[in-house]
Amino acid sequence: MKSTLSSLTGLRSASSWFELYAAFSTFMMLLRTAINDLIPSQVRSFITTKLESFFSNIYQSNNTASLTINRIWDESSRNNELYQAVCNYLPSRVSQSYKSLKIGKLDDCKDLMFAVDATEEVADEFEGIKFTWMLDEGSSEKERRDLDKLAFKLSFDEKHRKIAMEKYIPHVLKTYEDFKSERKILKLNSWSNGYWGENELSHPATFETLGLDPELKQRIIDDLKRFLKRKEMYKRVGKPWKRGYLLYGPPGTGKSSLIAAMANYLKFDVYDLDLNSVYSNSDLMNAMRSTTRRSIIVLEDIDCNKEVNARTLKDEENSDCDYTQDAKVEDIKVERFTLSGLLNCVDGLWSSHGEERIIIFTTNHVEKIDPALLRPGRMDMHINLSFLKAKAFRILASNYFDIRDKHPLFEQIEELLEKTEFTPAEVAEQLMRNEDPDIAFEALLKFLSEVDMKREVKKGSESSNSEN
C-alpha cells in the first residue's frame, strides 16, 4: 500500500515538473518574440556585448597576469629599450586593421607615423594566445605631461606566463630589430632635461659624396671595418669594444657630414651630447649609460666647454667659444661636471657599460684641448679635416654636376685651391648657385680669384706694417 502511494506521489511530482518546464519554455518563447519585435537589433547586440564583457571580467579577474613596461627604467633615467620596441611593434601589427590609432607626419621623418591611442586597448595574438596592451599616460594632468611616466601594460592569462616571458617578449624585440634593420632607420638623439630625445637621422651624407681627400677617406673606412671585426680581440685583451675619434679643423671643413657618413656606413644611431646640458658627473654618467649599443656618441666643440678646459683657461684670448677669461677653475668644477668625470666615461670604469660604440670629439682648435683627452684609448684616431684641395674638389664637381671627366676650367680652379685656403663649405655654396656646370665653374673661378687677390693684398699690407 505504501509503495503504491509513493509511486503515485512520484508521478504527480514528475508531472508537476514537466508542466513547470512547459510553462517556462512557453514564457521564454513569448519573451524572445517580444524582445525581437520591440527592441532594435543594435540595442540587443550592445546589451549582449556588455553582459559578455561583464561576466568575462569576473572570470578573468583572478586569472589575469600583467607586466608593466616603463619608458624610463630606473632613477638614473636609463631608457627602456623594450618600451621603444613596443612603440614600434604595436602600430606595425594593427595599423591596417585597428579602429583607433594616432597618426601624424613629423618634420624630420619621411613616412607617416603611427602610435597607439592611450584610450583603447590593443589586442595581439601570438601562437593562438591573446595578449592585451594598454598605454598608461598617468591619471593626472601633471603625470600626462611627464614623458618619463609613460608605460605600457601587457595583460594575459596567468597560465601563459612562460610563453609570454620566453617567447612573446623576445618576439617583440626581434620584430623591432628586424624592422630597424630592414628599413635602416637611424636615430639622432639629443640629451635634454635628463633624457634622450629621439628624431630620425635623415642626413644623406655618405663616404661616396664626401668632399674629402680620397686617401684619408679610405683610411677612415678601413679603420671602421677593423673595429667592427674585432669584437673577440677586444674581449681577449680586456678592453671595452669602443673606438674614439677626434675630428679637428676649421669651421666648414665637413665634420658634421663625416659623422653622418660614418653613421650611414655603420648603420649606427647617433647620440649628440651637448656638454653644456650636463650638470654633474652623475648626469654625464646617466647620459652615457642611456645610449644603446651600435651607436655613435658625439661631443661637439669640445674646446668650447669650460669644465673640460679648466686647466687651460689662459689660452682663451682668441677663442670663438662662449665663455669668459675670468672664469675660475673652482667655480667651473662646482657648477658642472669635472674633466676627470669625462675621462672616466670615455676611458675608465664607466666606459665599460656597453659594447660596439664609437665616441667622436670635434673641435675647431685642437691646441686648446687638454692633453689628457688626446691620448690613445680616448681619441684613438685623429682626423684633420683641412681645406679643400684638388682631389676632393673633383668629388664635389661629380656630386653637383655628375662631371667625372676633366672640365676646361678645372686646372685653373685646382691651382687656386692648392694655393689658397678654401673650405669645402665655401666651394659648395658657390656650386649650388647655378645649375649649368659651365656657368657654375666660371662663377667659382671668379670667386676664388677675387678672394685670393684680397688675401694677397692683405698679406702685403700686413708685411709692410710689420717692416715699419
Automatic annotation (TrEMBL):
- Name the species this protein comes from: Lupinus angustifolius
Protein name according to UniProt: AAA+ ATPase domain-containing protein
Keyword Hydrolase applies: yes
The beginning of the lineage is:
Eukaryota, Viridiplantae, Streptophyta, Embryophyta, Tracheophyta
The AAA+ ATPase domain covers 241-389
Task: Return the InterPro entries for the record.
Answer: AAA+_ATPase (IPR003593), AAA_N_dom (IPR025753), At3g28540-like_C (IPR058017), ATPase_AAA_core (IPR003959), ATPase_AAA_CS (IPR003960), Mitochondrial_chaperone_BCS1 (IPR050747), P-loop_NTPase (IPR027417)
Q: Sorted alphabetically, which SMART domains does this protein's record hold?
A: AAA
CDD domains, A to Z: RecA-like_BCS1 (cd19510)
The family database entries (PROSITE patterns) matched by this protein are listed as: AAA
Family to which the UniProt record says this protein belongs: Belongs to the AAA ATPase family. BCS1 subfamily.
Which cofactors does it use?
Answer: Mg(2+)
